[in-house]
Amino acid sequence: MSSRVAKAGWALVWAALVLAGCGGLPALGDDPIAPSLAGLSTQEFPLDSEPGRYRLEITDGKITGLEGRVTRLAAGPIRFNVVNRVEGARTDVEGLDLSQHAIALWLRGRGAAVHLLPHHSIGPVNSGVQEDWLVELPPGDYVLSVTMGGVSEAVLLVR
């Protein structure tokens, strides 16, 4: 039994050395990966004109109406209507290169939940185009990012 105690003691010493070398543990409730959302306003995700579909508008590479806010959304299957608006881009112009301002989106878990929640992506979505994006979201905190054609992020709370 004394060899078990000795092994357990060495394991504790080793763990303490590792933690000391890594700067220790963060304070309880501190999550350096997921900064606090306390300063952000909260809103419901905007619905599209079609029932059960949410409008997700990207204007010149920025997530319109969702940046700098916490947006709530119901868990389950979700259909986003992704609209890529670029000034001057229209789908009816012959010869216009719609892929020039294409965007891609990435939806993933936020903070420590990044590996526990599903990841979804869509793209490229050409400029002047709208496309439906079907995802299944269990409850959790998510980050929605424009990963191509802009730099923009939004926080989604799915409950």
Q: How would you describe this structure to a colleague?
A:
The protein has one helix at residues 2-21, and strands at residues 41-44, 53-59, 62-63, 69-73, 76-85, 103-109, 120-125, 129-137, 140-148, 152-158. The protein is mainly β and 159 residues long. It has one domain (37-158): Immunoglobulin-like. Strand 2 (53-59) and strand 3 (62-63) form a beta hairpin. The model is unreliable at 23-30 (pLDDT under 50).
Write a concise keyword list for the protein shown above.
6-stranded mixed sheet; elongated; about 160 residues; mainly beta; Immunoglobulin-like
Report the strand count. Answer: 10
For the termini, the CA-CA separation is 49 Å
How many separate structural domains?
A: 1
How much strand? 35-45%
Kindly provide the radius of gyration, computed on alpha-carbon positions and rounded to a whole number of angstroms. Answer: 22 Å
Structural class: mainly beta
Biggest sheet character:
6 strands, mixed
* The level-1 CATH class: Mainly Beta
Order of adjacent strands in the largest pleated sheet? 1-4-10-9-6-7
Element pattern in H and E: HEEEEEEEEEE
CATH superfamily: Cupredoxins -  blue copper proteins
Which regions are unreliable across 5 or more consecutive residues at pLDDT < 50? Answer: 23-30
Mean pLDDT: 81
Give the helix tally.
Answer: 1
Corresponding CATH architecture: Sandwich
The CATH topology assignment is Immunoglobulin-like
Shape: elongated
Helix content: 10-25%
